[in-house]
Write a structure and sequence with these properties.
Blueprint (H helix, E strand, L loop, with lengths): L3 H6 L3 H16 L4 E4 H4 L1 H20 L4 H18 L6 E3 L4 E4 L4 H22 L4 H31 L15
Antiparallel strand pairs: 1-3, 2-3
Helix pairs in contact: 2-6, 4-7, 5-7, 6-7
């Protein structure tokens, strides 16, 4: 516990804000709920932007990490494209509202990615001599999250268009 206090004390304020936002979005996904269509894209937007910013910052210092990020992004995208399903998702297109079934997956996914990124950043701060090795892992996590949420978004848009075997109808409570 003593080692954790300096890490927390040196954590930028925005990291706590990001943690609270990701935790809140994950907790909101536990029960069935209805949200605006734009709200569905908040979590993917956070992780896609975070992945791009991480790549941009790290690539300036170590261009050799770009392939690690790219491979992880491709793997994350492939995972989402092959595994994400939107069973139980219904939309009211006229009101731009989406009904989502309850799930623990968003909370677990958000926290695992956040914990990995936070843990790697803390490890790089505590062990600067291992920064190069840890940076590759950090970029792999960033790339995988970026790719996963890019694939997730593509699957949602594919589902919404009716191309996923669902009719693309505009009536209330229709498939997104």
């Amino acid at each position: 516990m003593q080692a954790l206090l300096p890490i927390l004390a040196n954590t930028p304020w925005w990291v706590f804000l990001l943690f609270a936002l990701l935790l809140g979005l994950g907790v909101q996904s536990l029960p069935e709920h209805t949200v605006g269509l734009r709200r569905v894209f908040i979590t993917p937007a956070i992780f896609i932007a975070w992945g791009m910013v991480a790549l941009g910052l790290a690539a300036r210092a170590a261009p050799a990490i770009i392939p690690a990020w790219g491979l992880a992004a491709a793997a994350g995208c492939a995972l989402a494209l092959s595994s994400v399903r939107f069973d139980g998702l219904r939309a009211d297109r006229s009101r731009a509202m989406v009904h989502l079934p309850g799930s623990t997956l968003p909370l677990m996914r958000n926290m695992v990615i956040f914990a990995a990124k936070y843990g790697l950043a803390a490890a790089m701060a505590r062990r600067p001599e291992a920064r190069d090795q840890l940076l590759v892992w950090d970029m792999a996590v960033s790339g995988a999250a970026f790719g996963y949420f890019l694939g997730w978004t593509a699957r949602l848009l594919h589902h919404r268009s009716g191309a996923a075997g669902q009719p693309a109808v505009s009536a209330a409570a229709s498939p997104l």
